[in-house]
Design brief:
Radius of gyration: 59 Å
Largest sheet: 5 strands, mixed
Number of domains: 2
Oligomer: single chain
Strand order of the largest sheet: 2-4-5-7-6
Structural class: alpha+beta
Shape: rod-shaped
Number of helices: 9
Mean pLDDT: 78
Low-confidence stretches: 447-454
Length: about 500
C-alpha cells in the first residue's frame, strides 16, 4: 500500500470517528433539548394552574367578604380575577392540548367555575347589593333564608370539587415532570459519557495512527540517512532493503542506484588514476632518458672536439643543454602537480614563523634581496610539506621575476574568524590586471623562457594545494607597482 494511501486511510478513519461523535452528540443534544423543553412546558403548566387557583380563591374570598360586610371594596379582587380567568383557562388548555386527560380536567374545572360563578356567586352578590341598597346591615342575606343555606352548601360543594380536580391535575403534572426531569438528567449524563468516550477513542486512535506513520517514515528515512553517511565515508557498495512498494521505496531504489552509479564511477576513476600515474611514470622515465642522452652527446662532442669547435657551435651546445634542463624541470613540475593529493600527508601543528626561516634558508636569496616577516606569525594545522611548497613558490617567484638585482619581499599575516590570511608582497615590476588569472594556469608565464628560466607550473601547484585544503588565492598588482599574492588557509583544514 502506498504511503499516501495509508495517510489518507488514517485521515478518513479519524474523520469518520469525529463525524460519528458529532452525529451522536447532535442526537443526544436533541434528546436533552426535548426533555428540557418538556420540563419548561410543565413548569409553565403548573405556574398557570397555580395562577388559576389563586384567582378562584380571590373570587371566593372577595365574594364572602362582601356578603359578610356589605363593603363593595371586597369585590375588587373578585372582578379582577373574573376578568383574568378566561385568558388563563385558554392558556392552560393550549398548554395541555396534547394531553387529553389533563385537558379534560381543565374543562371540568372551567365548567364548575362557570356554574359556581353564575349559579351561586353572582346570585348572592345581586341579592346582597339589594339589601345594602335597602339599608340592611346584617351579616349574610336575610331575603333568601333557607335558600341561602342551600346555595351556600352548593357553592362549597363546587369549590371543593374544583380543588380536588386541581389537586389531581397538579399531581399528574408533577409526576410527569419528575419523570421527564429524571430523563433529562439521564440524557445529559449519557451525552457527557458517550461524547467523552468517543472523543477519547478518536484522540487515541489518531495518536496511535500518527505514531505508526511517524515511526514508519522516520525509520525508513533514517535508513536513507545512514546510506548517505556510509556513501560519504566511501562505502559505495552499501544498499537499502525496502519491500514496502510505496513512494519511499522508489526513493530507496533511487538512492541504491545512485550508490551503485557512484561505486561504478569511482571504480572507473580509480582505474583511470592508476593508469594516469603509470602513464606519468612511464612518460617521465621515457622522456628523461633521451634528454639525458642529448645532454651527454653534447658534452661528448664538446670534449672530443675541444678547442677545435667554433664559438658559435659551443654556444649552440650550451643552448641545447639549457633546453634539456628546462625540459627536465618541466617534466618534474608536471609530475609534482599530478602527485598532489595522491599521497596521504599528515596534518600537524606548524609554526609558520619557524617554517619561513627554513624556506628562506633553503632558497638562499641573492645578497641584494631582503625577506621581511613579523614575529606574530601563527601556529596552525596543516600538512607541513604543502605549506612549505606554497611559501617557497611565492617567495622564489618574487625574487625570480624581479626586474632589479636588489629588492624586498614582505610576508604579512591577518586573522579572520575562519581563516588565516597571508600576503607575499614584492616591489618588483608588477603584473598587468588582464594577466591576474592567466598566471595561475598551467604552463603560462609572462616573460620569455629564455629571459627567465620557468616552467609555468609553480603557481598552478600553489593554487591546487590551497584550494584542495579549502582556501583561496588571488593577486593584486599594477604594472610598475609590485605585486601582492594573498592566500587564505582555513583554520579547520579540509581532509585531502
Amino acid at each position: 500500500m502506498n504511503l499516501s494511501t495509508k495517510l489518507f486511510a488514517g485521515f478518513v478513519l479519524i474523520s469518520f470517528i469525529f463525524t460519528a461523535v458529532a452525529i451522536v452528540n447532535y442526537r443526544l443534544s436533541e434528546d436533552v433539548i426535548a426533555n428540557s423543553n418538556f420540563v419548561a412546558d410543565s413548569q409553565n403548566i403548573t405556574r398557570t394552574s397555580a395562577s388559576l387557583q389563586r384567582n378562584l380563591i380571590d373570587m371566593e374570598t372577595g365574594m364572602r367578604g362582601f356578603l359578610l360586610t356589605g363593603n363593595k371594596t371586597f369585590l375588587d379582587p373578585y372582578y379582577v380575577a373574573a376578568r383574568d380567568l378566561p385568558g388563563l383557562f385558554s392558556l392552560l388548555k393550549d398548554y395541555v392540548k396534547e394531553k387529553p386527560e389533563q385537558l379534560s380536567r381543565v374543562k371540568e374545572i372551567e365548567e364548575l367555575h362557570q356554574k359556581w360563578r353564575y349559579d351561586f356567586a353572582e346570585l348572592l352578590i345581586v341579592e346582597k347589593e339589594k339589601e345594602v341598597a335597602a339599608g340592611a346591615t346584617v351579616r349574610g342575606i336575610t331575603t333568601l333564608d333557607h335558600g341561602y343555606l342551600v346555595l351556600n352548601e352548593e357553592g362549597k360543594r363546587l369549590t371543593d370539587r374544583m380543588r380536588i380536580y386541581f389537586k389531581a391535575f397538579n399531581s399528574i403534572e408533577y409526576q410527569v415532570r419528575e419523570v421527564r426531569k429524571n430523563r433529562l438528567e439521564q440524557s445529559i449524563a449519557d451525552t457527557r459519557r458517550i461524547s467523552t468516550t468517543l472523543t477519547i477513542i478518536s484522540v487515541v486512535l489518531g495518536m496511535v495512527w500518527a505514531y505508526y506513520i511517524t515511526r514508519l517514515i522516520s525509520r525508513r528515512i533514517m535508513k536513507m540517512v545512514n546510506l548517505a553517511d556510509r556513501i560519504s565515508y566511501g562505502e559505495y557498495k552499501t544498499q537499502i532493503e525496502d519491500n514496502e512498494n510505496d513512494e519511499l521505496t522508489r526513493l530507496s531504489d533511487s538512492l541504491n542506484r545512485m550508490a551503485a552509479t557512484i561505486d561504478k564511477t569511482f571504480s572507473e576513476l580509480d582505474s583511470k588514476n592508476k593508469e594516469l600515474d603509470q602513464f606519468a611514470y612511464v612518460v617521465s622515465h621515457d622522456l628523461k632518458a633521451p634528454l639525458r642522452g642529448i645532454e651527454n652527446a653534447s658534452r661528448w662532442v664538446e670534449e672530443d672536439m675541444g678547442k677545435e669547435l667554433p664559438p658559435h657551435v659551443l654556444e649552440y651546445l650550451m643552448m641545447m643543454r639549457v633546453r634539456v634542463h628546462r625540459m627536465e624541470n618541466l617534466i618534474n613540475g608536471i609530475l609534482a602537480l599530478a602527485r598532489i593529493g595522491k599521497s596521504n600527508l599528515e596534518v600537524e601543528t606548524v609554526d609558520v614563523q619557524a617554517l619561513l626561516y627554513e624556506v628562506v634558508d633553503m632558497l638562499n636569496p641573492p645578497a641584494g634581496f631582503k625577506i621581511h616577516f613579523s614575529d606574530r606569525m601563527p601556529t596552525l594545522k596543516a600538512a607541513r610539506v604543502e605549506l612549505q611548497q606554497v611559501f617557497s613558490n611565492l617567495i622564489s617567484n618574487a625574487i625570480k621575476y624581479h626586474h632589479q638585482d636588489t629588492g624586498n619581499v614582505t610576508i604579512e599575516y591577518k586573522e579572520t574568524p575562519e581563516m588565516h590570511k597571508f600576503s607575499v608582497i614584492d616591489d618588483g615590476p608588477g603584473i598587468e590586471p588582464e594577466y591576474h588569472e592567466r598566471i595561475f594556469v598551467l604552463f603560462q608565464t609572462l616573460q620569455e623562457r629564455d629571459a627567465v628560466e620557468s616552467t609555468g607550473v609553480g603557481l598552478a601547484i600553489v593554487k591546487k594545494i590551497i584550494e584542495r585544503r579549502g582556501g583561496s588565492i588571488w593577486v593584486h598588482s599594477d604594472l610598475g607597482k609590485g605585486a601582492t599574492f594573498t592566500f587564505q588557509w582555513p583554520k579547520e583544514t579540509l581532509a585531502a
